[in-house]
Each structure stands twice: as structure tokens, then as C-alpha cells.
Amino acid sequence: MSIYAAAVTLFLVVDPLGNIPIFLGLLGNVDPARRKAIILREMVIALAILSAFLFFGKYILQGMHISQPALSIGGGVILFLIALRMIFPHHVIPATEGNSTPGAQSAEEPLVVPMAVPLIAGPSTMATLILLATQHPDRIMDWFLALLVAWLCAALVLFSAEGLRRVLGRRGLAAVERLMGMILTTMAVQMLLGGVEMFVENLGIVGL
Hints:
The chain is 75% helix and 0% strand. By secondary structure, the protein is an all-alpha fold. The longest helix has 43 residues.
């Protein structure tokens, strides 16, 4: 997998467009001048957590004796389920500023949970990074670069959340998220097939 493909995969898994309504809901009672600072803080925390999983998560899997084919197949299944959720969303969008109800949101600034974890640094993103690091440990810095690119793109999207919501609207955001889900579906299937291929190779029946 190229750096570009890894960055696109990570960006799709983070799903910043799908997180826009949730972020706006969580920050509905926060001073508008503080919102970008909070988003930046939470994004930096998420980046630190994801970097730790990229560099050290593979040792956890090695200790659990999880094979590369199993990890690849499991990662493909996880990504496929995420893609289905993006194509057929069923979550409830929280109230945003302007239509919120009293007591619907906390007046305190969110810290780490739920913005950094699990909305940005969620289990699926962690699993994807561990999969990349385990399959090609010699390219760990390539995957870190891909993580930085995906993180930067996601941060730009979330910084522009208010503007995107006004331009695209709820239906527009949902349509773009479904398109991203379709792209992620093909990547998930490719990852799953790669795991099956590795499993077949380990059995010594590649020619079948």
C-alpha cells in the first residue's frame, strides 16, 4: 500500500465529515472564539494516541500471537462494517447551536472524551494503524507520514465545520459521507482479500 492510499484510508476511517454534526453539538454552548482552540487541542491529543498505537501497538499483537492474515482479515471486516455505517447511517445527530434545547449539552469544554477518543482516535483507526505497522514494519515512517496527512486533512475539515454545514447542509454532508463509505468499502474488500491471500500462501496452495 502506498502512502497516499494509507492516508486516504485513515482519513475515511476517521470520517471527519460524519463527525461535523457531533462536534458542533458538543461545542454548542462553548464560546465561538474558543471552538477552534478546543478542536486543535483534541486533535493533537488524538494524534499522540494514534502515534503511540502506530509505533507500539504491534508489540501488543505479537504478545497475543495474532498472525498477519488474521489481522488483515479482521481489519478488512472492521473497515467494511464502518463503510456500511457510513453508507447507511443510523446515528442520531445531536442538536447544534441555534436549535439546541436547555440542558441538552454540557456547559463545560469537552476534554479527551468524546472528541479525541473515540471520535478521532477510535478503535477502527487504531486497528488500521496496527495493521499497517504489522504488515510492513520497515515502512513505519511512511505510515506515520500517512497518519500526519490524514490528521491534517481531518483537522482542516473540522476547523471548517460551521462553513461546511452552511454550504452543504445536512443532506449534503450525508451524501458526501455515503460517497466516502463507498470508497472505503472497496478498500475494506481489498484488505480482506489480501488477508485471505496471505493465509492461502501460508498453507502452500497459492496455485489453486
